Structure formats: structure tokens, C-alpha cells
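Dear colleague,

Following up on Tuesday's group meeting, I ran the structure prediction for the two-component complex that the binding team flagged. I've pasted the input sequences exactly as they went in, so you can double-check that nothing got truncated or mislabelled along the way. The C-alpha cells for the whole assembly follow below. Feel free to forward this to whoever is handling the docking comparison.

Inputs:
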Amino acid sequence: MSGAPAVWRRLAWPAAALVAMTATGCGPADVAAKGPVPPAASPLSTSAVTGAGSWAVVVMGGTAADNNAFWQTFFRRAGAAQWTLVTPPGVASNGGLILAPGQGTSLLAGFRPGVDLTFSPLTATTDNGAHWTATGGVLATGLADDPDSLARTGNGNTIALARSGAVEQQAAGQDTWTALATARALAGTAAGHRCGLTALTAVSFTPRGTPLVAGDCSRNGVTGIFARAGGSWHPAAPPLPSDAAGRPVTVLRLTSILGGNAALLATTAGLIAAWSSGGGSGWTVSSLLPSRPTGILSAAFGSDGSISLVLPGGRAATIRPGAADWSQLPRLPGSTNTLAAGPANSVDALTVSGSTLTVWRLPGSAREWTRVQVIKVPVDYGSSG
Amino acid sequence: MPGMNSGLSPSNSILVAAFRSALLHQGLLVVGVFVLLSVVWGAARDWQAPPGPVRVKAAEPAGRWVLRAGFGLLWLLDGILQAQPQMAGGLPSQVTVPAAQGSPDWVQHLVNWAGTIWTDHPVQAAAASVWVQAGIGLWLLTAPRGWWSRAAGLAAVAWGLVVWVFGEAFGGIFAPGLSWMFGAPGAALLYVAAGALTALPPRAWQSPLPGRLLLAGTGVFWAGMAVLQAWPGHGFWQDGGNGPVASMAQQMSGSPQPHPLSALVATFGTFAAAHGIAVNLVMVAALAAIGAALCSRQPAIAKSAVIAGSVLCAADWVLVQDFGFWGGLGTDPNSMPPMIVLLWGGYLAVTRPVPAIDITEAAAPERTPMPLTVRRRLARPAAIRASLAGASAATITAAGALGMVLTGAVPMAAASVNMNADPVIAQAIAGDSPPVDLPAPEFSLVNQNGRPVTLTMLRGKVVLLTFLDPVCVSDCPLIAQELRRAGQILGSDASRVDLVAIALNPLFYSPPYIRAFDEQENLTGVPDWQYLTGPLPQLRKIWNSYGVAADVSAGGAMVAHSDIAIVIDRDGHIRQEIDADPGPGTASTRSSFAALLAGAARQALGMR
């Protein structure tokens, strides 16, 4: 620098400052963060059938981000045409509602954690939702985000899948929960190892009261359904059809039906329904329904094991045990939250717009939906903070 | 940003009233400081022996005078603007957080840290800003020379840096879209530059070097801004309403202000929308040309550049920045007035160097000496007395201005290390809770461990009593944390206070739910915490006796219930009923409620 003309020496530091300022002022590049791809999961909107009638769980109100999404429960008495709002009171239902039908008119409901509530209160009804009583068995760790995270036998034994991934059980008449299994412990068993178990996704009971758990397998072509017998876990999964063999399998749903269990499996090729009447054995499986597993908006079960799916784009598919193929239903009414069994072999589509539930009915052989009921739900916007 | 916003409206009447009250009280203190200084000065001058010949010192350099007086007035104006009613509750959420948008995380973290201190102590912080800035302004104006004047410059540097970093997010220089038109590099940095120049020793002003450096630095900066303004992809080269200049003008015209000004700015915004490319071309050319001219050592060229620059600054100040201080939360007139002052200060520093020192002697004024007895009493320390007697009125005023600065700075420094938010935030939500004196209704329940608890058993301790729904999703967890925190604030007094909650849900009230709530809120290890429940008829009776309600709703809502905290003294008398609705439930409001509850408990203990 000493040999440079004076004018350049004078301009050297301002030029350096200019370059630095220009570089700074260009501003940082905006790099979008990439998050993990969420695994396939089954939404909480669903329906089930008991001896007393049909139950449905739908989400209503506003957005979950504003704490204005409230889960509601509806009941239609067997043979009746109309649905009734029977949402269990006393707890905000922002986190979701899980139903575990019992015998006759009884049903157990669990509130999922939401907003600042981190545990799951449980409540039960014995008169089809007209009255609810809090049970003593609060699940401290909170129910998992799965529609099959709670199950109950006819005599009151309860099993729950917690947010922690553990399975807990509660004996009839008791308030305390005891650990039954964890994904890690189950993965370490021979059955779990064969599956390459990574997470648990559903719990249920066989008709004899044997606990069933389902989960995701990392090994292709293996379905993660296990039954507890003799103090240990055993494989209890259906065989896969040939066009699904060799693919990764996720158990989206596992539930009790009259006289058995039903399951909904997802592979990369599509969806498969399965039914068991033998306590986790003797499975029959359906043909493959081509569909993306992450696109299911609702899966509902009839008492006979029929499965009805709400798919994107207003599509719906249904299948009964023993049927060869899935049936496509007529295009669904807009904003259908879930399908449910209607009276006289009809199918009801429950649509939601804010705090209004509309019931559309498709009689057995009809090709068009008919609006049959509108229920205005007193959603208390803003009440959850 | 958690903690950045108390959740209260900036115009909350309680906050505004508390701010005004603080300004009034501190203003009286400032007046007191000036009065005291005046009295002491007058007494010292009366007592002191008549002074010798008066030496007239050199006139202040013109450039320094422009910088000192110009920025003195600006600081004074900023102090006055800081006294606007919404400042206490609105500055972090409405000013400093938006200023940091787009800046890197570390910048936002710094702004967030300072914003949290303001949010937790809104009244003290807002009042401090008034006195510090007005004090610096008065100090600069009344201290023309000497170390007092240089100290004022240093004070301006220190506070200017605080404002630039924490209030202006470094003037936005780390965020995209930097533009001279919108205030780059941050008005506060210009105050810092002026303060630094003011703090220079007198000999530095004996050459035109400070002026040349100032003009050259400004010139380089303007040339750099021209480059940024011309940079493709920054959005300035476009016609249409989405351009940054048009958008800024339209936004500023929407601030509450006199209609003619709003219309003028809106008109310019429309013009800029239609001719964005032409406007930017003019800006780039002007910035580049003026910047280059400012680097010239030719006085005539520099003068032309300073005049042209001043005109450009004035135009931008009116048409784009819209004077910078409308809307109720304007903290300063933005960057253009300071820029104009710097330009002229630099020019005069170059063209009018320090004149030759001229010492004249003048006859000393006659004064009546104080009585000998009083003189002897005030005899020590003689040096201080002599300094005081010899000080000018301007120096005494400058000393008062320093007192004004300290009136703001000291309490704010003390508040900033207080981890608990001021109770005024909670009071702004809860309103007044006048004292009462009523016997507290008795209760007999069991706690979370199954042990029987009655109110009579708790005599001898203050009881902070509330009612909590164990399956509540919002208010009750917040209230529980506030009680927990209140217990921590009480410190050694906590052993004399019981924190008691009674279950408030007619459906979910059994001990397992109480215990689940305690686990959820980390209350299981809190000493003197009792969460009580019992049979439903008993609970209903207690709710009724304390005037609390729990209404079951349909539609999936939680139980609607009262939020109340009751202070019961050691003799079982209710002394205060505080509305415990946690409001927005921000970190500041939770901390403030905890401080409020702890203060109420201390008051009931008979301590303050």
C-alpha cells in the first residue's frame, strides 16, 4: 500500500467498508427448513356399532391452532332415524375423544390431552350417553393419538395405548393402571423381532378378553398384530394377499366387532381389510383397495365388521366380511367427517360445517344421498383459552 | 416470541395511568434535583470569596455546535415522544418486535431479551426512556464545552447503542430489504456517531479532519446505499402497488395524523406505485452522486452535496418516512433529521475550523459575603465548594440533566435484574381488589394425600386460597403456576403461607384427578401446597359459601368456572379477593400475577 497513490490509500478503507456493507445489506438467504415426513396414521373421526346402536366421533368448530376444534360424540339408537349429541361433559374435548364400546348400553370414553391438559380423564355411560360418570382411572400419561388407543371388555377390563407408546391395563373395578407392554419390550420378543417392531398403533381385546396390540413393522411383508397369552406375546396377524407381499405394512385400525376383531392394514400398494373370529387367528383378508395410506379421512366399523372409508376427493369405499371386492359408494356430500351405520342397512354420512352437523343417508340400494337431519352443536368458541 | 408481549392492549387504562403516575412522581424528583442544585450552587457562590478575573474561553467550533445542539434537540424530542401514553404497554409488541422481523435468530434473541425486560417492567422502562433521553438532550444543550460536554457525548453514545441494538435490531442491517429510504442504518446509530464526535477532545476540532471523516464516511455510506437500492431482486425496480416504496408510503399514510399530511403521503404512494422504476432510478442516481460529492475535498462541491443531500433527506422524511413519529408509538423522527444535522455538522467542521483563543479579563461582580458563622460551617470540602461557586448556570443545568438521566437509568437497571414482572400487569388484567375484612367460611375436606384439612387447622398462617378445575385446559394450569411461583417469591416467608386450592368441577373431582393435576403442574414437591377435595355435596356448599361457580356446558367445552384468589390472614379473615383470570397467560402476566399474590400474602403477614 505504501507505494500506491495517495488517493487510493484514502479510498482503501471506505471501499472495504462499502463492500462489507453491500454484502451485509444483501440480507441472508432464506433457507426453508425441511421436517420429517409424518408416518401414516388413522384420523380420530370414526364410528362404531354396539348392540344399542351407532356411535360416531367427529371434529367440529374452528381450527385446532386456535383451540377451537372440539370433538363431539353422537349416538343413534338401533332402529331410530335420528342422531343425538351425547358428548361427555366436564372436560374440553380439544385433544380428541376415544370411544371403547362395552356391553349393551355401556361405553367408555377417553379425552385425549389437549391445550394445557396432559393426561386423559375417562368417563363412562350406561345409558347410551344420556349421563356420564367420571371413572377413577385417569390415565396420567395420556391416550395416544389413535382411534383404537382404548378398549374395554364386557366385564370391564380396560387396556390403553398411551402417548408414551406404552400399553397399560386396568382391571375391572380398579382405579390404577399397570404397565402391560412397551414397544421396546415387545420388539425384543421373538414375535416383535420377526416383525422389526418400531411403534405401537392400536389395542383391542379378542372376544375372550385376550389383549391384542398392533404396531408398525420395519420388515417388509410382516404385519404387527400380537396377542397376549400365557404371559408372553405371540404373533396374531393375518396373512397378506400376494399383491401386498414383500411390502411394508402398517396397522391403521384394530378393533372389536361382534364375535371377533377387524383390522385395516395399509401397504404401499393400498389398503387391506381383515377379519378374525378366532381370537387373533383364522383371519380372512380382502382384496387390495388401491389408495395412498396417508389419504384416509376416516375409517368406520359396523358391528358385523364391515368397514367404510372416507377417502379424499369425495370418494368412499366399503366392504363387508367375506366380500370379494371393495364397493365404491356414490360421491360423498362435501365436508364428510365420517361414515356410520344407519337404520335398515343404510349408510349415514356425517358432514360438518363449523358447529353444524348434517346427516346424509344412503339407503341400501340408492345411488344418491338424502339429507335427513341437521344438528346445531353449542360449540363454545374461545372457551379453551 | 414468548415473553415479548404481555398480551395487554397498549392503551390499557391501568397501565397508562400507572405510566403517567410514574412520570409525575419522577418528574417531581427531577424538579427536586434541579432545585437542590440551584440552592447549593447559590449558597456556595454566596459563601465563596469573590472570584478572580473571568477568562473567556474559545468559542465552540461551529461543526461541533451544530452536532451538539442539533442532537440535543433531537434527544429532547425523543424523550418527549417516549412519554406518549401507549409506550409502556405497546413498545415491544408494536415497535421493537416488528423491527427485528427478518433478522437472524441471534438478533431476534437479543431484541427478545430486552423486550422481555420491558414487558415485565413496562412502567419503569417507559419512564426510564423518557428521562434518559430528555436528560441527554438537556445535557447536550447546556454543556457547550469541557469534560461535562464530552461526558454528554459519551452518554449519547452509550444510550444510542442500547437503542440501536435492542430497539432497532441493529437498524435492520442484518435483514433483507435494507434501504436508505426506510431508515438504514438505523436512526440511533446516527445519534451514536454524533455523540462520539461530541466526545472528541478539543484538540481534535482544531483541524478539519473530523468534518472530513464525517462527510467522507457519509458519502461512502450513501454510495453503498445507492448500490443496494439498485440491486436487482430487492423489489425496488418495479411499477405497481407491491413495490416496497409504494407499500411503505401507503402504510405510513394510514397512521393517525393530520389529514393533509396523510393525503400527501398517500399521493406519493400512488405516484410511486405507478412510476416505481423512475422513482428508484432517481433515488439511485441521487444517492450515488451525492455520496461521491461528499467524498470530495472541494468545499464548493461538498456544500452542494450537503444542500442536495438535505433536500433529498427532507423529501424522504416527508413523503416516505412520514415524519416517523405519528401513530402514538413513534419513538423518534426517524433517520432523516439526524442525517441532515450530521451533514451540516460535518460541512461546518471542515469549512470553519476552531478560531484563535481570545482571553479577556472582566471585573468580578460584587457579592455580599455570607455570615462568618455559616461560612465556617460550610468550610469543608473547600475544593468542591470552590468548584460549585465557580460553575456557570449552564453547568449546573447540565448537572441537573445528569440527575435526570440517573432518575431514569438507576431504577431501570434495578428493575432489569428483577426476574419477577411488576404486579401492575396483573392489576391491569384483574383490576382493583379493595381490602376486605370478613370471616372466611370454614371448610373440611381432604388433600391430595388423603389427609383431612380444615380452615381452622390452617390458622396461624396466611392462606392463599383458590379454586381449580383438575381437568381444566387453560386457566387453572396457569393459576397453579402463578401460585407456585408466588411461593418461590415469598422465599423465607413461604413457611408462613399455605397455598391451597379446592377442586372446582362437579364431574371430575376425585383424588386421582387431583393428583394427576398436581403431577401435570409439578406441584407434588411444593411445600405447603394443598389441593383439597371431598364429596360433591360438600364441595358445592363450599363453592356457594365462597361465591364461586362451576357450570357444565355441552358441546365439548370445559367447565366454566370462576377464577379467584382469596387472601386469608392468620386469624381466618378474608383480607383480599383478587380476580385471578390469567388473561392472555403470557410469561409476563404469569410472573406479574405471582408477584401480586406474593405481595398480597406479605401484606397479610403484616410485612412490606
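The longest helix of chain B spans residues 13-47.

Cheers,
M.
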